[in-house]
């Protein structure tokens, strides 16, 4: 990014997300998400102790927003790792000391930082990823795709074409991250999200991965309103089977991230939904773990995450999500 364009782009960002619409719910929630995220990004740079850092994140964030701070810490720890000889192993060592319960979020934050440094140099990411945990290394591309969507796509549709510079699996996870950003670009509005999906076209080659990202974002950002997610699921079930399966797979991943991160928040929210939906939630979590447990026995390469995603989609398809 050219530095003389930065003020103009930030003005676009502020106008799009905070000024163009009278939507107090989205504005307040997004402001809190950004606040939590950037607290997390800067805190590791000044607080070396994982114990003290954990205490700070607990004190400065409510339970609902705490996960966004841990995603931000992925940036802070990634910055610090670049001053070490073994960058990737240093990064993983630090995040595992902080809290293994936010494992997915750290890699997303890492992707944000690597995109600032490596831009679209596919091999640079691959080389860095070789020293990461093979199960999660591809998740950094979710951060790349989300960053492209959140900061560029809403005013420059051509920015999505840059994702084509990556390898196939890198692209797929980028489009998942882009799908997450589409939910934010659409201000948590499903009708708007659907219109933006249709702008890309039903035959867009990575539509399934984008819908996976939308499902993940809905489950995570609106975890206190899971009925919204199930309304979207019911809509898709009667419209397009492939869209339905992909959204549901992403929704399952968003639920699992929330469940793993904060068992207390999980129980308090799940207890407020109807029993029939609790059954479906537990079913989805079971799919996530059954596929992962099988892959643990058979896959030891860095394509693990995509095999996991595809396996959960296949599980949903075979069981027709009853």
How would you describe this protein?
Helices cover 75% and strands 0% of the residues. The protein is mostly helical. It has one domain (3-319). Helix 6 crosses helix 8 (140-153) and helix 11 runs parallel beside helix 13 (241-261). The chain is globular and about 50 Å long.
Descriptive terms for the model:
322 residues, mainly alpha
Principal-axis shape equals globular
Distance between the termini: 48 Å
Count the domains: 1
Helix and strand sequence: HHHHHHHHHHHHHHHH
Sheet of most strands = none
**Mean of pLDDT:** 94
**Would you identify the regions where 5 or more consecutive residues have pLDDT less than 50?**
none
Number of strands: 0
Helix share, percent: over 70%
Pfam families: DUF1702 (PF08012)
InterPro entries: DUF1702
Keywords: Membrane, Transmembrane, Transmembrane helix
Transmembrane segments: 33-53
Topology:
Elements: H1 6-19, H2 24-46, H3 50-60, H4 63-81, H5 87-98, H6 103-118, H7 122-129, H8 140-153, H9 168-185, H10 190-200, H11 207-221, H12 226-237, H13 241-261, H14 263-270, H15 275-298, H16 304-319
Helix pairs in contact: 2-3, 2-4, 4-5, 4-6, 6-8, 8-9, 9-11, 11-13, 12-13, 13-14, 13-15, 13-16, 15-16
Keywords: Membrane, Transmembrane, Transmembrane helix
Organism: Oceanobacillus profundus
Pfam families: DUF1702 (PF08012)
Quick summary:
By secondary structure, this protein is mainly α. The protein is 75% helix and 0% strand.
């Amino acid at each position: 990014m050219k530095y003389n364009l930065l003020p103009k782009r930030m003005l676009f960002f502020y106008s799009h997300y905070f000024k163009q619409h009278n939507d107090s719910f989205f504005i307040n929630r997004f402001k809190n998400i950004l606040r939590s995220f950037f607290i997390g990004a800067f805190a590791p740079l000044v607080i070396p102790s994982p114990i003290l850092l954990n205490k700070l994140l607990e004190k400065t964030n409510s339970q609902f927003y705490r996960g966004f701070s841990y995603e931000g810490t992925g940036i802070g720890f990634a910055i610090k790792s670049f001053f070490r000889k073994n960058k990737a192993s240093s990064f993983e060592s630090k995040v595992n000391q902080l809290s293994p319960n936010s494992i997915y979020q750290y890699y997303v934050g890492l992707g944000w930082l690597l995109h600032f440094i490596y831009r679209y140099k596919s091999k640079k990411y691959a080389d860095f990823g070789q020293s990461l945990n093979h199960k999660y290394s591809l998740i950094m591309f979710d951060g790349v795709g989300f960053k492209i969507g959140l900061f560029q796509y809403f005013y420059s549709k051509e920015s999505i074409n840059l994702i084509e510079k990556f390898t196939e699996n890198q692209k797929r996870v980028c489009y998942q991250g882009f799908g997450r950003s589409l939910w934010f670009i659409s201000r948590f509005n499903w009708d708007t999200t659907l219109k933006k999906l249709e702008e890309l076209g039903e035959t867009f080659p990575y539509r399934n991965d984008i819908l996976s990202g939308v499902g993940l974002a809905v489950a995570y950002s609106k975890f206190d309103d899971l009925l919204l997610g199930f309304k979207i699921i019911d809509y898709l079930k009667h419209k397009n089977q492939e869209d339905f399966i992909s959204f549901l797979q992403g929704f399952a991943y968003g639920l699992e991230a929330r469940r793993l991160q904060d068992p207390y928040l999980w129980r308090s929210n799940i207890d407020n939904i109807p029993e029939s939906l609790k059954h479906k939630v537990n079913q989805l979590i079971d799919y996530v773990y059954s596929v992962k447990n099988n892959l643990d026995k058979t896959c030891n390469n860095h394509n693990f995450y995509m095999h996991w995603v595809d396996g959960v989609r296949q599980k949903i398809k075979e069981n027709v999500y009853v």
